[in-house]
Amino acid sequence: MTWTRAMPVMTTALVFDAVRFLFEQFWFFGPVLIGVGTTAATSGLFGTWISSILGTAGGGVSGFVIGPALEVLGIILAVAVGFFGWLTVGLMIMLTNARIFKESSGNMLWFMFGLLISETPFIGSLPGLTGTTFKMYHSQIKRDREALARYESEQAESGRQEQAQIAAQITQIKAAEAANDESMDEIPDDVRKAA
């Protein structure tokens, strides 16, 4: 596993955490969005200066009047978006990298613990999904790098042993050929006397 292969899952987790943060802080972002919408809707009718005043007033009034309702709505939406995000990222991990859960039972515990913590209101504004996903991938990538280094050192050692065996065999063959050549160069005495 590499960080390049983990990026789609990490990006998805980051997007879900950002949307969840938006809804967790909806007591603030709700009136701001209402103000921006009011400004955009009235800009064609009244002009920039008046529409900006109307947008600011719309955001302030909506924050004062429906602020508590926006806060409750934001928490409900944050829990829903967060749970959907955990399901989506969990499914993406299972489809693209299921061994992350098989190799380490601690990753499954981290995943469940992160889900429990992030679904707690107000604490859930922290990027739990991104943090948990990052931690799981970080530990797997670290294990994979260590395993690759072990494999490469074993392959290098077996290559050196194989080369040593081949060198020893070549030395034995050359020694045998040299001994055979010496025995062929000597003319036996009885053949020399006969000549």
Short synopsis of the structure:
The chain has eight helices and no strands.
Number of strands: 0
Shape: rod-shaped
Low-pLDDT residue intervals, each spanning 5 or more residues: none
Order of helices and strands: HHHHHHHH
Beta-strand portion reads under 5%
How many angstroms separate the termini?
79 Å
Helical region count? 8
Structural class: mainly alpha
Computed over alpha carbons, the radius of gyration is 36 Å
Mean pLDDT: 81
Give helix % range: over 70%
Largest sheet: none
Structure description:
With 195 residues, the protein is mainly α. It contains eight helices and no strands. Helix 2 (26-46) runs antiparallel to helix 3 and helix 2 (26-46) packs across helix 4. The radius of gyration is 36 Å and the shape is rod-shaped. The chain starts with a helix and ends with a helix.
What's the SSE blueprint?
Elements lengths: L2 H22 L1 H21 L1 H18 L1 H30 L2 H5 L1 H14 L9 H58 L3 H6 L1
Keywords:
rod-shaped; 89% helix; mainly alpha; 195 residues
